[in-house]
Amino acid sequence: MDRTEAIAPLSRPGSAAGGDAEPGRPVIRLRDAALAYGDRVLWRGLDLDVRPGEFLAVLGPNGSGKTSLLRVILGRQQLTAGSLTVLGRAPRRGGRHIGYVPQQNSLPAQATLRARDLVRLGMDGHRWGVPASPRSIRHRVDEVLDSVGATPFADVPVGRLSGGEQQRVRIAQALAADPRIMLCDEPLLSLDPQYQRTVTDLVDRRRRSAGTAVVFVTHEINPVLGLVDRVLYLARGGFRVGTADEVMTSSTLSRLYGTRIDVVRARDRIVVVGAPDGPSEHGHADGPNGGGRP
Ligand SMILES: Nc1ncnc2c1ncn2[C@@H]1O[C@H](COP(=O)(O)OP(=O)(O)OP(=O)(O)O)[C@@H](O)[C@H]1O
């Protein structure tokens, strides 16, 4: 089966999901957004539009607020200041048409749910037309499992699957939401290069076939370098957003980190030398990079 076909959505971007019918209109819109925990500012002054089909990589050191940004978009965390719309509306928990691939943690070895159960849980009746018959749901689950190459282990308890297989199942679960936005939190962590490629291909195929916007948190830009439209780099309470060529430079990252960073391009890879990979410091948005507008 052609896998691109298999994951084609039932609703196209800008079709049925709400007040954002205008094609090409941002599916995520942040304005002057800030997030702080107590007096600790993770980021502020963030203006960002993510458009249908766009692939946005989110980079930054540990603790810079990458996961927190996804949680804000998911409606699980409130902004401290500024505004956010997701698919034209205020974000809300359980919002439709958002696929979430959470940061990897091994599923417990004794987990008895099967891949097909998890994918089924990722669906709800509204997404697939009302009423959805058990047969059409089963068919759709099979399609989604096939689209990520998970058919051979669809009936194995997920606790027994390898890390790479579990990751495919997580992506299948996210795809089951017929997502117009995919939020992926470090989906490449601890995967070998072959599985990394599988995961990035799956996500890329979805955004190309269905216009799904992708927000992809990663520590490593290289596995997605050929796919990203823009990079959002968070550090020390500030940020930079732009193309990889604009953001991944010695001068931009040195300003963002407030220390000398060397960015070296070797063939088709980017090597960043000197970036401290530790928690962002407190409230540095007024530093040399001043909140870092695009
Ligand atoms: N609910 C919360 N209350 C207080 N502090 C929090 C809360 N959630 C996260 N933090 C802190 O905010 C900081 C940013 O966390 P977040 O998980 O967003 O960072 P991250 O950039 O995704 O990090 P990593 O690369 O390590 O996954 C961390 O220091 C974290 O401990």
From TrEMBL:
<dbReference type="InterPro" id="IPR003593">
    <property type="entry name" value="AAA+_ATPase"/>
</dbReference>
<dbReference type="InterPro" id="IPR027417">
    <property type="entry name" value="P-loop_NTPase"/>
</dbReference>
<dbReference type="InterPro" id="IPR050153">
    <property type="entry name" value="Metal_Ion_Import_ABC"/>
</dbReference>
<dbReference type="GO" id="GO:0005524">
    <property type="term" value="F:ATP binding"/>
</dbReference>
<feature type="region of interest" description="Disordered">
    <location>
        <begin position="1"/>
        <end position="23"/>
    </location>
</feature>
<comment type="similarity">
    <text>Belongs to the ABC transporter superfamily.</text>
</comment>
<keyword id="KW-0813">Transport</keyword>
<protein>
    <submittedName>
        <fullName>ABC transporter ATP-binding protein</fullName>
    </submittedName>
</protein>
<dbReference type="InterPro" id="IPR003439">
    <property type="entry name" value="ABC_transporter-like_ATP-bd"/>
</dbReference>
<dbReference type="GO" id="GO:0016887">
    <property type="term" value="F:ATP hydrolysis activity"/>
</dbReference>
<dbReference type="InterPro" id="IPR017871">
    <property type="entry name" value="ABC_transporter-like_CS"/>
</dbReference>
<feature type="region of interest" description="Disordered">
    <location>
        <begin position="274"/>
        <end position="294"/>
    </location>
</feature>
<keyword id="KW-0067">ATP-binding</keyword>
<keyword id="KW-0547">Nucleotide-binding</keyword>
<feature type="domain" description="ABC transporter">
    <location>
        <begin position="28"/>
        <end position="261"/>
    </location>
</feature>
<dbReference type="Pfam" id="PF00005">
    <property type="entry name" value="ABC_tran"/>
</dbReference>
